[in-house]
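Below is how a single chain appears once it has passed through the pipeline. First comes the sequence as given, then the structure the pipeline wrote out for it. We keep one example in the README because the format questions we get most often are answered faster by looking than by reading.
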Amino acid sequence: MLSNILEFFDNIFLYIAGLIRHFFAWLGFNATVTEIGMGLVYFIAIIAVCVLCALFYVIWERKLAGYIQRRPGPNRLGPNGWFQTIADAIKLLTKEDVVPLNADRVVHLWAALLIFVPPMLSLAVIPFGRQMAALDLSIGLFYLIAVSALSTIPIFMAGWGSNNKYSLMGAMRGVSQMISYEIPMVFSLLGVVLITGTLEMQSIVAAQNHIWFVFLQPVAFIIYLICGLAETNRAPFDLPEGESELTAGIYTEYSGMRYALFFLAEYCNLFVIASIGTTVFLGGWQGPFLPGWVWFLGKTFVLFSFFIFCRWTFPRIRVDQLMNFGWKFLVPISLANILITSIVLFVFNNGLGW
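Resulting structure:
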């Protein structure tokens, strides 16, 4: 009886998707229209996940930051302040949308809209549970790497379209930082690909049935976490924003809803980085007693909390230190990890022993 209940909650979203398919069939839609309709349903679900995760993690960061700094944090609106994010969202929606007179209005607008595209595309292939991915691609990990690289485009558009020297300098910092740290991040994931021999996300999770890859690839996992912070422009790598020297960097000329989109996209990107780390290194949905999607969200919650801890603990580093650390330390270490992993796999696969 207990196993049946667990199986039901483990597959509850699959059952919901099946009911929606049956509803489309009941309406008389053919297979093509049904697939288009399911694609729209998945799209809405991904948007809902992005928005809900952003709303929750904004208030969670403020709560955890308050605890780290020995202060209350938000505690006025709602039970112990948990509705504060809703009030902040309403405030941003109702604030005046100011655009600089000499800004490139088209680029300025599209930068705020496109910043949400990479995390939404990434979440499409993330398996939140067993068979719970909108797209089950055989090259899922390669797809994630390619999509995440698109984040540099709206960042540069925001700096260029603002027609502000501080914004442009922040954009140049962001592009150089994200491209530089993309390389060791990809190298850190290659160790897992060597072990599993696949790029499919579901297969990578299934390969961790007995042991998580964080224990087989600890160096790669640490490199991935560091690069994840840099890829999302979070402290201590928040140089594109750099309030102390760039006012607010790429966000200087944004207000109202456009600023809110950048703000939400930052948390969505963090959720994507935590989701990839959970899938590749922490066994994804694998876990006893609870539904797989609960395990998945719990593991991403732990990684996200670690990112928050880093932001409110470590000071911002200089630009030259950032670039030196990425190119002179992380890249060589990640390459060495790939080399050692390849040697170990060659020895064991050929039965050479030690």
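The chain is about 70% helix and 0% strand.

See the next section for the split statistics.
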